[in-house]
Amino acid sequence: MIRISDIVAAPSITGAAAVGWTIAAIAVPTAIRAAVDSFVSGCELTIYLPFVMLVAIFLGWKHATAAAVGSIVAAQLLFMCLGHQFSLGSCDSYSIGVLLIGSAAIIGFAEAFRSIVARRSGSSSGIVFSLRDGKAWASWYGHPTPVQLGSEEEVAEMMEDFLKQIELGKRLNRPKE
Q1: Which of 90, 108, 125 lies at the terminal end of a domain, its last residue?
Q2: With contact defined as beta carbons under 8 Å apart, do 138 and 147 qualify?
Q3: pLDDT tens across 29-63, in order?
Q4: Helices (H) then strands (E): counts for the chain
Q5: What does the pLDDT look like over 55-78, one tens digit per residue?
């Protein structure tokens, strides 16, 4: 059973996939904005905010920050430049400021929510074991980098030994009848 706390407690997409999704979170709203460019002006950056939010939820604050900054660069180069000259007028500065403030609020809220859910579910100190390419990994909620423990066979043997040691300790510490 998948719990919402497991999805929210830590970014659910990491590594190269996260980079790809971050790029997509810049490219998709840029394509949408380009599609309406001929009859819309003055709202170059609003389309990016929902995508920054999705990145903050599923990829974490670092990728969301990259998406926000990348969105500003894309919009500046494609929609805000007059005659393909890099310029920053007062309207552009205001739009960029609003996107940065909105993105910071969204990212902060997503991280605070993630932290609260992790604490309430008790998963902030929980260890998650996983297998990838025959290797066992351990990761902790809220920490983006997993630790490789060894091969599946080695780790399974160590875990079995660990469980046997716990059982032996319980038997030895059992009160005498």
Answers
A1: 125
A2: yes
A3: 999 988 887 777 767 788 999 999 999 988 889 99
A4: 6, 3
A5: 998 888 999 999 999 999 988 888
